[in-house]
Amino acid sequence: MNIIRTVRSVAFSSIPNRTLSTTRSLSTPSAQYTAFEVNDKTGIATLTLNRPPVNSLNLELLTEMRNCLKDAETNKCKGLIITSSSNSVFTAGLDLLEMYQPQDERVKSFWTALQSMWMELYGSKIPTAAAINGHAPAGGCLIATACEYRVMLPNFTIGLNETLIGIVAPKWFVSAFLNVVPRRVAEQAITQGKLFTTAEAHHVGLVDDVVNTKEEAIAKCEQFIASFKNVNPYARALTKQQFRIKELQELEQQREKDLQIFLGLIMQPSVQKAMGIYLEGLKKKSKKQ
Ligand SMILES: CCCCCCCCCC/C=C\CC(=O)SCCNC(=O)CCNC(=O)[C@H](O)C(C)(C)COP(=O)(O)OP(=O)(O)OC[C@H]1O[C@@H](n2cnc3c(N)ncnc32)[C@H](O)[C@@H]1OP(=O)(O)O
After folding, report:
1. Is this model's pTM higher than 0.90 or not?
2. Which one of 24, 35, 76, 181 is most buried, by most CB atoms within 10 A?
3. Probe target for ligand 1 pocket from 96, 97, 161, with the most ligand atoms within 8 Å of CB
4. Is 139 a residue of the active site?
């Protein structure tokens, strides 16, 4: 696999136009699981999740994602695309190992990092798009629905499958899902823990477009971001905020309560048992392959 490096704090306005190389990626020693590149010509940033084998979202990956999101906004990038370095998994969602038999302080930091990353992405002032080039269960779906636009490759799955693991998708997971699919579809799917195939997701509006390759997916995201080229960025950001402020304020005001509810739920012996069985099943399946 290519080693992807990360750019930090590169002001887009300070990047000269270059004809040969059109992306800039600098390394920072702290970035382990993400690549962050800014296209010199378009000003669009791409955040690539790179934590093999399945990009499961642990504390470190979530923290890196948040830093990249902040950088994209601070550096006035024209938009942000999130994708994966894997050919088959966008992200497998939250790292179950962070929640199974967890250490007290770490699991608190983990959930707090998830809240922060989500608020940064959902509330981002710049246009955001997900190029979903693989499976996107649970936390993967959360990231996709926090973006303004989603394009997906065929024959993968996406959805909030928490109930199948014996856990509950918090309200803010559900509210972002509700932005993109009708309430009746959402209630049925989330209570069932349904994972939609790409075709089903497209049918219900969970994804906006379906294309065959990652390159086409990135191009679609770029087109979406370019569709704002004649729109005042400040007016756009304030307008977007009007649509999203309620969920953001709700979580901001209830962060501690949300954390305590999360801890209370995952620390229940029955939930730990269900998670253990689920993880065991994943490991058995993985060994058979
Ligand atoms: C009232 C309000 C209350 C609120 C309370 C809050 C409660 C908590 C809410 C938590 C919310 C979020 C939930 C999540 O995001 S949980 C994660 C859900 N994810 C999944 O179910 C996906 C599981 N994975 C898969 O289905 C598959 O891995 C895949 C993504 C389809 C990819 O398949 P694959 O064949 O390519 O890879 P596979 O062989 O299965 O896996 C390779 C190794 O990776 C391990 N693994 C997979 N997923 C995870 C994961 N999410 N976390 C940790 N580890 C994972 C897998 O076990 C294999 O490991 P190994 O190689 O055997 O060691």
Report:
1. yes
2. 35
3. 96
4. yes
Sole residue written with tokens 């950001």: 237
Question: Could you tell me what percentage of the chain is helix, strand and coil, using 3-state DSSP and rounding each to the nearest 5?
Answer: 50, 15, 35
Enumerate residues 6+ apart whose C-beta is below 8 A from 139: 57, 91, 92, 93, 94, 114
Q: Which domains does the chain have, with CATH numbers?
A: 23-288 (3.90.226.10)
Name the catalytic one among 37, 64, 148, 162: 162
Provide the pLDDT for residue 3.
31
Residue 228's SS3 state is coil
Task: Give the rounded distance of the alpha carbon of 246 from its chain centre.
Answer: 20
- For the stretch 138-160, pLDDT in tens is 999 999 999 999 999 999 999 99
Q: Which helix (H) or strand (E) holds 128?
A: strand 128-132
Q: pLDDT tens for residues 65-117? A: 999 999 999 999 999 999 999 999 999 999 999 999 999 999 999 999 999 99
